[in-house]
């Protein structure tokens, strides 16, 4: 059954892309594909078709005809038509679908939802579960997104590559949502990370020469490689300094290092390559203390030149500086723009603890715990605060 | 001489062939559909074998049609602008054969396409000689 699920997930974007390319009507085609998938899930276990993709396209096309029939005989739908600027090859269909889902008229949350649904083949219920919102909310979000795409009149065709950064950002957000869930009882939503990696691999197949695509894939692999060591036996969060590095995935690390090394040789590195380079330095270090912190500080400097206003970068940079120059130097670099974010308070607490100011560190840990939204994070931060009391 | 043979159908016909007949429309069983496909394939193979087939295509349902027209200076696109019983082009053959009569003979075979017993009386097929140059139009 899992094999069937994987097959359907793999075929979904191809079938949807085939329908949209041939007939247009993104929103209706999407509904038609969902119904074809449902039919496949019911019928295939009994009798597998010889060509599953062709089967799905046929069934979805018939369903699309039905859906259009029920609309079109009653109302004529007229729209300004803009000629497609480029003609894309069939191989690019999945990328076109991804670009369409990352349409600039959509909010990032809608882009993510639509990408997971249309390209990732996740059901609305699965996406709603992953983002901890009621299914009805996610349904509304997705249908609004489809309406917005339809209203924009953007034809199905490969848009200029200037949308690629948005696509990469959406994939990055999906990965992060899976890697460090911002809310709820479970630290990881592994399936979202795995999905982001799968989609990024797909983009890389289609854009093999793009160094930032390679950088993003490397970043995901190098980060995901640490997942097995990131939680303890009771689901508690284990900070990098205390992780058992033997649990890290050596294969992912080596693939990520190779990717980022090759990408960096291609000229001025973009933000994903730099973040991947930082992750690579961490992953290749024998221990936290023996990490090449000066190199990490140097990479953060480069990153901050590209994105000077990113408070999370500033925060990570402060940690690296503290490892090189001491906690006081790190504390001086903390900036309060992340005042509502638990990460600022946990970093401050950690640096205060290192500097020996246990009372202030404890207060900061408690503050961080109050703001953290995931239970493992709260448990971890409270435990750190408790330990300072005991000591 | 080349001739264009045009076969017509309506959205209603397409719906019926897809196994979703409108009330009162002929019901196509999967076997009917299979038999129709086999008949068409035989026809096309015969024409290919005799060297008379230039090109043949079936068109998808009218629901998927898109009409472009200028309204003032605006290009306006209308999707599926056909009423469900309106006959539109459903498929065509370009044949190259000796005479108009031979083209007619070929087109006549379309009236023997197997299908549900109720179809038949409404079938319309056109034959249009193709002009090979501007002067023949």
Description:
With 391 residues, chain A is mainly α. Among the domains of chain A are: 1-73, no CATH class; 292-391, Alpha Horseshoe (Serine Threonine Protein Phosphatase 5, Tetratricopeptide repeat). Chain A is built from 19 helices and 1 strand. Chain A has helices at 2-23, 26-43, 52-72, 93-101, 108-119, 124-130, 135-152, 164-179, 190-206, 211-224, 227-230, 250-264, 271-284, 293-306, 311-325, 327-333, 342-355, 358-371, 375-390; one strand at residues 77-80. The longest helix of chain A has 22 residues, at 2-23. The termini of chain A are far apart. The relative contact order of chain A is 0.07. Chain B has a single domain (2-136), classed as Dimeric alpha+beta barrel (Alpha-Beta Plaits, 2-Layer Sandwich), CATH 3.30.70. Chain B contains 3 helices and 6 strands, in the order E-H-H-E-E-E-E-H-E. In chain B, the strands form 2 sheets. Chain B has a 4-stranded antiparallel beta sheet. A two-stranded antiparallel ribbon of chain B has the order 3-4. Chain B is flat, with a radius of gyration of 17 Å. The model of chain B has no long low-confidence stretch (mean pLDDT 87).
């Amino acid at each position: 059954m899992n094999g069937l699920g994987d097959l359907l997930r793999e075929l979904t974007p191809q079938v949807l892309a085939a329908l949209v390319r041939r007939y247009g009507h993104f929103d209706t085609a999407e509904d038609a594909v969902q119904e074809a998938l449902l039919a496949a899930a019911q019928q295939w276990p009994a009798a597998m078709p010889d060509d599953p993709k062709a089967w799905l396209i046929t069934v979805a096309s018939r369903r699309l005809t039905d859906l259009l029939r029920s609309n079109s005989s009653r109302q004529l739908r007229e729209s300004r038509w803009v000629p497609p600027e480029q003609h894309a090859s069939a191989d690019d269909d999945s990328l076109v679908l991804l670009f369409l889902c990352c349409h600039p008229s959509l909010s990032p949350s809608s882009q993510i939802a639509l990408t997971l649904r249309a390209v990732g083949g996740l059901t609305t219920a699965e996406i709603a579960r992953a983002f901890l919102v009621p299914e009805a909310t996610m349904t509304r979000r997705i249908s609004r997104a489809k309406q917005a795409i339809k209203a924009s009149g953007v034809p199905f065709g490969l848009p200029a590559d200037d949308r690629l950064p948005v696509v990469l950002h959406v994939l990055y957000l999906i990965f992060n949502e899976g890697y460090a869930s911002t809310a709820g009882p479970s630290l990881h939503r592994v399936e979202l990370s795995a999905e982001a990696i799968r989609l990024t691999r797909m983009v890389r197949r289609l854009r093999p020469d793009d160094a930032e695509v390679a950088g993003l894939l490397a970043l995901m692999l190098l980060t995901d490689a640490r997942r097995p060591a990131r939680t303890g036996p009771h689901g508690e969060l284990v900070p990098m300094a205390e992780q058992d590095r033997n649990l890290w995935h050596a294969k992912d690390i080596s693939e990520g290092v190779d990717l980022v090394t090759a990408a960096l040789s291609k000229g001025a590195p973009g933000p994903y390559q730099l973040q991947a380079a930082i992750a690579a330095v961490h992953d290749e270090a024998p221990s936290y203390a023996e990490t090449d912190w000066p190199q990490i500080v140097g990479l953060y400097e480069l990153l901050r030149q590209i994105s000077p206003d990113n408070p999370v970068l500033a925060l990570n940079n402060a940690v690296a500086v503290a490892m090189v120059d001491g906690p006081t130097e790190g504390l001086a670099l903390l900036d309060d723009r992340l005042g509502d974010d638990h990460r600022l308070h946990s970093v401050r607490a950690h640096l205060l603890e290192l500097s020996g100011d246990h009372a202030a560190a404890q207060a900061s840990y408690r503050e961080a715990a109050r703001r953290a939204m995931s239970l493992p994070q709260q448990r971890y931060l409270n435990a750190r605060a408790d330990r300072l009391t005991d000591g | 001489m080349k001739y264009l043979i045009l076969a017509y159908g309506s959205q209603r016909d397409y719906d019926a062939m897809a196994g979703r007949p409108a009330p009162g429309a002929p019901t196509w069983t999967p076997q009917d559909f299979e038999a129709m496909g086999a008949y068409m394939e035989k026809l096309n193979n015969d024409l290919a074998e005799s060297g008379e087939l230039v090109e043949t295509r079936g068109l998808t349902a009218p629901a998927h049609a898109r009409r472009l027209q200028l309204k003032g200076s605006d290009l306006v696109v209308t999707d599926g602008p056909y009423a469900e019983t309106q006959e539109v082009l459903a498929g065509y053959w370009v044949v190259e054969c000796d005479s108009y009569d031979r083209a007619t003979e070929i087109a006549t075979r379309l009236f023997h396409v197997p299908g549900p017993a109720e179809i038949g009386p409404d079938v319309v097929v056109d034959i249009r000689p193709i002009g090979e140059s501007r002067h023949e139009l």
